[in-house]
């Protein structure tokens, strides 16, 4: 047997440059869409204002990417096709703070190794363009304006095994369109067009709005549709060195698949489990079942605090302090979701009334203006959403006539000289106002027209409250609505939501643990203490639990700790304890809420409506079901065919 192995053994030798290029192509060039992504990245780095992509055969037969950027000098065209030759970085320091879309200098070489590639480029100083054929190395004059055109034919022609694994033409075209759509979302100032077989498939014109915010919102509507804008709200926040912007979908607009979730870090589309976990945690008790939220989230952060060189396709990033990012994203999304649709509607109606009266006051409320000024002045603390009316929460800048979300701007140079910049993200959250300050029956406004959820009319079937507001008819599920009110009060009654009250155990609970669990317990000891769990290693294969959260007296400590450690290993943060506590509070709220078939007086119904208007996340019960629905006068007229 040893003789056979020895005979079959190959000597160790260096791979040829061509084979190395093929391996790189296997990492960078997966399908036509990955070629489109890499070439458009280069076009944007070159300062292009218009990018046009032309495909044939779904991108397998031909891909042509044209841009109007600065172009490539004739004497640099040959270098552009060499591996690890790039103008983006020149030192390790620049790699650690890279702010361009591309930086490795291997994409063109990898693409050229699996296709027939040619580059036509011209700079502003050149009299004419030059064309370089990658296969023959021939350089000759060509005609085109300033910019670059990359042409490639017959993708994977020399690697038939890889070509065999490509999908149908329609599928590959869809993937290429999705790649371009992601670029279009991140860069509203750039025009994009996609042609297939001579037919225009998609086009997004460059937007030159007076405010970048307006252009960003318009581009979101152009790419994702008006339905996404109508079913989402603005997210705008700054916490320490992290700037967040974009739009997050309403919980009732959640989808069965996670196909409308876009995360961008410094303008680059990425998939990050840490941020996805934080967003999901923010929606936790507002989504019904396994529904998935829709969102477009832009994160802007100093390049020194994020590593983009962790994946061949640059689809993943690694934050220097993942826990701080997780907490900041979760807090910002939670605060944005806190505002109810009733408060948004009331603010919108008030703003339109002010505009009709010829008021010089802008549509946004003073609180909205203060929040927006705070964002640009560099606020470092997320303020309490209880200090202002729900519709004026600084991190929930939702307004029907609001121009747009503050799109994240690039962080100023030197804004994060080191990890000390994360100190603001580690700052404790502003304490919520005690529940005693929320009246059981809030003071009634001077005029019923000021009530977002309107004036109670009657009770239907012992389950629903019928009310009339300025828009028409409001139908409220009284048990679901009261359940949310009680639940939010129970959560607010917690002395310090960031740190769980702890109960020491007379006899520690020990259990066998894997080396990974022991390592996670040691690495995240401070986080575990914040969750009310004092977990210490007994040996290399055992852990001891010496305290438990007071809110979970009957929890299985072994399973609880295992679940927390598993989540900490996966994403660097855990919601297991908070989730268990919230489930307990939700059960208490469900049993404490008003039951069906209980007859309420008009005064009690009005008090419940006013409580809903003053409660965060009042649009949904603890299980994610809607608590109320609005039927407008137009919808009611349509039911009775009025005006036809």
Topology diagram in text:
Layout lengths: L1 H7 L8 H12 L3 H14 L4 E7 L5 E6 L9 H4 L11 H5 L10 H7 L2 E7 L6 E5 L5 E4 L4 E7 L6 H5 L4 H18 L4 E6 L2 E6 L7 H13 L1 H5 L1 E8 L2 E8 L11 E5 L2 E3 L2 H10 L12 E6 L5 E2 L10 E2 L2 H17 L2 H16 L9 H12 L77 E6 L3 E6 L2 E6 H15 L9 E11 L2 H9 L1 H6 L4 E5 L2 E8 L7 H15 L4 H17 L9 H12 L14 E5 H7 L5
Parallel strand pairs: 1-7, 11-13
Antiparallel strand pairs: 1-2, 2-6, 3-4, 3-6, 4-5, 7-8, 9-10, 10-13, 11-12, 14-15, 16-17, 17-18, 18-22, 19-21, 20-21
Task: Sum up the structure in keywords.
alpha+beta, 5-stranded mixed sheet, 22 strands, 35% helix, globular
Describe it.
The chain has 644 residues and is α+β, with helices and mostly antiparallel strands. It is 35% helix and 20% strand. It is built from 21 helices and 22 strands. The chain has an 8-stranded mixed β-sheet with strand order 5-4-3-6-2-1-7-8. It has a 5-stranded mixed β-sheet with strand order 9-10-13-11-12, with helices on both faces. The protein has a 4-stranded antiparallel β-sheet with strand order 16-17-18-22. β9 and β10 form a beta hairpin. The longest helix is centred in the first third of the chain and has 18 residues, at 169-186.
């Amino acid at each position: 047997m040893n003789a056979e192995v020895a005979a079959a053994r190959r000597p160790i030798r260096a791979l040829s440059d061509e084979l190395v290029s093929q391996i790189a192509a296997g990492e960078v060039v997966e399908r036509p869409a990955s070629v489109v992504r890499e070439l458009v990245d280069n076009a944007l780095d070159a300062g292009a204002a218009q990018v046009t992509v032309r495909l044939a055969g779904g991108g397998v037969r031909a891909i042509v990417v044209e841009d109007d950027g600065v172009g490539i000098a004739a004497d640099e065209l040959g270098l552009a096709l060499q591996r690890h030759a790039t103008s983006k970085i020149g030192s390790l320091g620049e790699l650690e703070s890279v702010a361009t879309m591309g930086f490795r200098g291997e994409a063109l070489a990898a693409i050229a190794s699996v296709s027939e590639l040619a580059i036509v480029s011209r700079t502003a100083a050149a009299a004419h363009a030059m064309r370089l054929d990658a296969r023959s190395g021939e350089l000759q004059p060509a005609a085109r304006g300033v910019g670059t055109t990359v042409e490639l034919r017959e993708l994977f022609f020399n690697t038939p095994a890889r070509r065999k694994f490509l999908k149908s033409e329609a599928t590959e075209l869809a993937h290429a369109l999705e790649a371009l759509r992601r670029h279009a979302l991140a860069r509203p100032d750039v025009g994009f067009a996609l042609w297939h077989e001579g037919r225009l498939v998609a086009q997004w014109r460059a937007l030159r709005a007076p405010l970048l915010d307006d252009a960003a919102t318009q581009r979101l509507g152009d790419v994702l549709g008006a339905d996404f804008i109508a079913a989402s709200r603005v997210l705008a926040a700054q916490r320490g060195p992290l700037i967040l912007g974009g739009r997050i979908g309403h919980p009732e607009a959640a989808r069965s698949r996670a196909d409308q979730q876009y995360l961008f870090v410094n303008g680059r589309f990425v998939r990050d489990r840490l941020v996805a976990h934080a967003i999901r945690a923010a929606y936790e008790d507002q989504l019904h079942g396994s529904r998935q939220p829709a969102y477009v989230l832009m994160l802007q952060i100093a390049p020194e605090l994020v590593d983009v060189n962790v994946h061949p396709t640059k689809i993943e990033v690694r934050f220097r302090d993942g826990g701080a990012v997780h907490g900041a994203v979760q807090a910002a999304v939670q605060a944005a979701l806190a505002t109810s649709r009733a408060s948004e509607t009331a603010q919108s109606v008030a703003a339109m009334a002010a505009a009709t009266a010829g008021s010089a006051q802008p549509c946004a409320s003073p609180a909205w203006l203060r929040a927006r000024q705070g964002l640009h002045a560099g606020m470092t603390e997320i303020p309490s959403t209880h200090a202002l009316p729900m519709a004026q929460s600084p991190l929930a800048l939702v307004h029907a006539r609001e121009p747009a979300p503050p799109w994240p701007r690039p962080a100023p140079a030197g804004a994060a000289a080191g990890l000390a910049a994360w100190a603001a993200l580690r700052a404790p959250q502003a304490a919520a106002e005690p529940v005693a300050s929320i009246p059981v029956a809030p003071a009634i406004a001077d005029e019923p027209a000021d009530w977002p959820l309107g004036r109670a009319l009657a009770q239907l079937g012992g389950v629903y409250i019928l009310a009339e507001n300025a828009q028409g008819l409001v139908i409220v599920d009284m048990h679901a609505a009261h359940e949310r009110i009680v639940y939010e009060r129970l959560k607010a009654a917690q002395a310090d939501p960031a740190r769980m009250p702890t109960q020491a155990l007379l006899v520690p609970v020990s259990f066998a643990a894997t080396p990974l669990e022991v390592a996670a317990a040691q690495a995240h000891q401070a986080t575990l203490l914040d969750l009310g769990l004092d977990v210490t290693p007994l040996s290399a294969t055992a852990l001891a639990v010496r305290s438990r959260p007071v809110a979970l007296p009957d929890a299985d400590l072994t399973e609880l700790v295992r679940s927390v450690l598993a989540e900490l290993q996966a994403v660097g943060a855990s919601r297991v304890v908070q989730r268990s506590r919230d489930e307990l509070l939700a059960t208490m709220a469900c049993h404490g809420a008003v039951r069906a078939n209980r007859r309420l007086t008009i005064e009690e119904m009005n008090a419940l409506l006013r409580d809903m208007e003053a409660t965060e996340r009042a649009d949904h019960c603890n299980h994610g079901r809607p608590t109320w629905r609005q039927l407008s006068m137009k919808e009611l007229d349509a039911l009775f065919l009025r005006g036809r």
